[in-house]
Automatic annotation (TrEMBL):
Origin organism lineage: unclassified sequences, metagenomes, ecological metagenomes
Record's compositionally biased regions (Basic and acidic residues): 97-106
Protein name, as recorded: peptidylprolyl isomerase
The keyword Isomerase is assigned to this record: yes
Pfam families reported for this sequence: Pro_isomerase
Length: 106
């Protein structure tokens, strides 16, 4: 996917952004929720590209915070990272909201 991090959106707590490898246009289907402000991921970043924000948690950040607390182990695909949940949580429901419906939840 073409990196669109230049869209003006910032990696602040509660925003949802595309995960990618070190290559700027390598995002596919993985995303992450920022659990804190991550200005270092904004465009322009050290590599010049940043991580593209495309959404925001509008309800349930308390659930995200609980998921953040699960026990983790070393990630087999990146031994420098202890990010793999020992017992992965299951997200049973997520909704894509229209602009109008998200305005009413704010």
């Amino acid at each position: 996917i073409e990196n669109e991090a230049k869209n003006g959106l910032k990696n602040t707590r509660g925003t949802i952004a595309m995960a990618r490898t070190g290559a700027p246009h390598s995002a596919t289907s993985q995303f992450f929720i920022n659990v804190k402000d991550n200005a270092g991921l904004d465009y322009p970043s050290r590599d010049g590209w940043g991580y593209c924000v495309f959404g925001k948690v509008v309800e349930g950040m308390d659930v995200v915070d609980r998921i953040k607390q699960v026990e983790t182990q070393t990630n087999p695909s990146n031994p420098r990272e202890k990010s793999q949940p020992v017992n992965p949580p299951i997200i049973r429901k997520a909704k894509r909201l229209t602009k109008e419906s998200s305005d009413s939840t704010s």
